[in-house]
Amino acid sequence: xxxxxxxxxxxxxxxLAASGSAVGLGNIWGFPTNAAxxxxxxxxxxxxxxxxxxxxxxxxxxxxxGRHTRANMVSALQIISPGKTTRLLGxxxxxxxxxxxxxxxxxxxxxxxxxxxxxxxxxxxxSGLPGLANWLTEFSAPRNLLFCAxxxxxxxxxxxxxxxxxxxxxxxxxxxxxxxxxxxxxxxxLTQPGAVDGLKLYLIPDFSRIGDPKLIxxxxxxxxxxxxxxxxxxxxxxxxxxxxxxxxxxGAIVTALDSSVAFLAGLLVLPAMFVARHQGVEIYxxxxxxxxxxxxxxxxxxxxxxxxxxxxxxxxxxxxxxSIAALTSSISMLEVPVSYTLEQHVASRxxxxxxxxxxxxxxxxxxxxxxxxxxxxxxxxxxxxxQPLLGLMLCVFATWVWRRDRVLEEIRRxxxxxxxxxxxxxxxxxxxxxxxxxxxxxxxxxxxx
Length: 449
Ligand code: TRP
Fold this sequence. Notes:
The chain is an all-alpha fold. The protein has helices at 11-22, 25-37, 41-69, 73-79, 84-126, 130-137, 141-160, 163-190, 195-203, 213-226, 233-239, 247-278, 294-307, 311-343, 349-369, 371-401, 404-412, 422-448. Tryptophan (TRP) binds next to helix 1, helix 2, helix 5, helix 10 and helix 14.
């Protein structure tokens, strides 16, 4: 009998869903552009170090808490807290997580909407509707609102179908497609003239940049964002895991998949920029820096596609890739408020889903209407500050607040010999002292800059 609470039906279902959450615009757009801005290979090295040494332990805190409590973040942190004060703190932290998840989804769906518009553009152009094609690629509030709404509707449709028939089913369909498209695009781009210059920039580390605080902060933010940490996404996915799955291994697989896709995306985007340059497209800003933000995705690369043989197909594939990546991530964000509402027993899953979706869209609309003042501010507030802070809180709850023997018991269910494993020798002390200290250090540094 299936449990009344959702559950992933298989191990691979969880792995694809959790890596679907992790692999998103952050990997395909954020990672390569961050690398381009921060000394190429130097950034890649620091990123990998931080992903495994800081983000993975925090991911484990979420997965263990989630699977033990089988609850959303608000209830979960209360369940593992022994005292009154810690319970209150747990509740507040949980709500903070939900709010941050909703805010992240509200800007994420605006960006994902752009991907949808750019996905339609080549088809509209081919159908001989240049006016409409222009509208699709021109920045305007009506376009932004329309496509953000479409994207959120698709997200809601998946989430309202539930854990197994929505999240798991669609992640299992979309993630293999994403990988296949990506590999095809990489092979295609790497065979074009100019690609090698991009590869060099990406893979040869500029060691003089390695200690740069800006580089480290960007890499940490990128790692937390990329692994969907802090807001309870991974906690809730962990709560849908079967009790006998090996948690440290699951977390390691998800971290490795996420980092590999980010690395692959770098092999696509940076060489593509230099192929574009070879074709006469400008890839440096007037200040001499490599283009990174929206201009890269929405001007440089489309300009490149136009010069390529079969460029329409390449453009179509590229924006389909980005849209799929965004969808498997956005569903995981929406599941955070939805699971909370569901577990308060106030609404059915479809009701909870469409209500949460509507609230998120209202926030997106406010951001769209005040784009210049709000967009960057919301991104910074949520991803640079709130996510690391929440990640820190989750480490604290898993190691300071929660009883250590309970943690051990939970991991043992899928890994009977846990006490003698490398994981148990390192993780508890590490997540207790090193993770919070390192996160604080990076945060303090960013506040001083
Ligand atoms: N990790 C996703 C990406 O790289 C985005 C994402 C999904 C996310 N769920 C999240 C980010 C929760 C922060 C919090 O694009």
